[in-house]
């Protein structure tokens, strides 16, 4: 997820070690340039991390982000092994201090993909697009190794992550995973079930490439409703989820599913309502995805747009 070198993510051209067709030199250079520009805009440099001191800083950063100092999300020994085996550990540096990091490992050889397991930005450095710079570096890093796709999971209730993954990066949800990690009990997840959406980022997809240079294509929930979409899950005046009445999933080709604006704050202020959102989104969005319908976008106001397959 990071670029090699202190200058802001210069990625060397590396020949693919799999039978897959490697990306062209010109395309890789463009991906690297986009990555460099994002890093400059965020005020960071992005590089690969392999030294023990750097990897220890990643462990400390993730422990701080997730509030798990006694049981950090990753260990130093695991990161050391992953980097030795050629996997991805990258970090964003601000004047020598680690302010963001990302860790990924390869899928089975035949799947031609990298799984981006965990990424986080220091609490005092959010809002600067550091995560975006990390992902663009990860894209260039993966393309340089002949990898076509990056996959990862995220909590479908976290609206800002839905926007980031589906709109700003152009990734596509492919699977709903119920309570995927089991109980995590940390500052971000609380005691909530760890439902996740699995997304796949097709690195050569024109829409993804356009998103990487700022040409984003958010969904328009109001327009979809005007065209006949069914709002299957919405929010009431008290901030609670409310199911649609009078229309079923089968009656409209497009469905809208709402999520709360800030589920993490809600878990602290009203855990009962937060739990209700988990259950309702699981039943509505989870059922749609598991039935093979396609999540094709996310509206800034908090709606997933799902198109039903015939």
UniProtKB/TrEMBL annotation:
Protein's organism: Nocardioides exalbidus
KW Transferase (keyword) present: yes
Recorded GO MF terms: acyltransferase activity, transferring groups other than amino-acyl groups
UniProt domain N-acetyltransferase: residue ranges: 44-189
SUPFAM superfamilies: Acyl-CoA N-acyltransferases (Nat)
Protein's name according to its UniProt entry: Predicted acetyltransferase, GNAT superfamily
Membrane spanning stretches: none
Keyword annotations of the record: Transferase
Domain of life: Bacteria
PANTHER family xrefs: GCN5-RELATED N-ACETYLTRANSFERASE, N-ACETYLTRANSFERASE DOMAIN-CONTAINING PROTEIN
């Amino acid at each position: 997820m990071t670029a090699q070198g202190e200058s802001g993510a210069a990625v060397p051209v590396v020949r693919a070690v799999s039978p897959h067709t490697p990306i062209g030199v010109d395309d890789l250079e463009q991906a690297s340039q986009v990555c460099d520009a994002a890093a400059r805009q965020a005020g960071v440099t992005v590089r690969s991390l392999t030294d023990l001191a750097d990897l220890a800083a990643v462990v400390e950063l993730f422990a701080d982000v997730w509030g798990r100092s006694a049981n950090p999300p990753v260990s130093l020994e695991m990161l050391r092994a992953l980097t030795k085996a050629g996997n991805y550990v990258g970090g964003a540096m601000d004047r020598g201090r680690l302010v963001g990091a990302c860790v990924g490992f390869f899928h089975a050889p035949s799947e031609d993909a990298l799984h981006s397991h965990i990424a986080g930005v220091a609490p005092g450095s959010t809002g600067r697009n550091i995560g975006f710079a990390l992902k663009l570096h990860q894209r260039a890093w993966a393309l340089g190794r002949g990898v076509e796709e990056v996959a990862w999971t995220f909590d479908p209730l976290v609206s800002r992550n839905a926007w980031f993954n589906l709109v700003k990066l152009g990734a596509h949800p492919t699977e709903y995973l119920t309570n995927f990690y089991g109980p995590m009990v940390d500052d971000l997840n609380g005691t909530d079930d760890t439902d996740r959406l699995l997304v796949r980022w097709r690195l050569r997809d024109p829409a993804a490439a356009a998103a990487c240079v700022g040409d984003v294509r958010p969904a328009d929930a109001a327009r979809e409703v005007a065209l006949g979409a069914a709002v299957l899950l919405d929010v009431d005046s008290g901030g609670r989820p409310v199911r649609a009445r009078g229309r079923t999933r089968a009656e409209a080709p497009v469905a809208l599913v709402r999520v709360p604006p800030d589920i993490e704050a809600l878990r602290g202020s009203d855990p009962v309502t937060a739990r209700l959102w988990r259950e309702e989104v699981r039943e509505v969005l989870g059922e749609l995805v598991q039935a093979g319908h396609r999540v094709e976008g996310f509206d800034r106001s908090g709606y997933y747009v799902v198109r039903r397959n015939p």
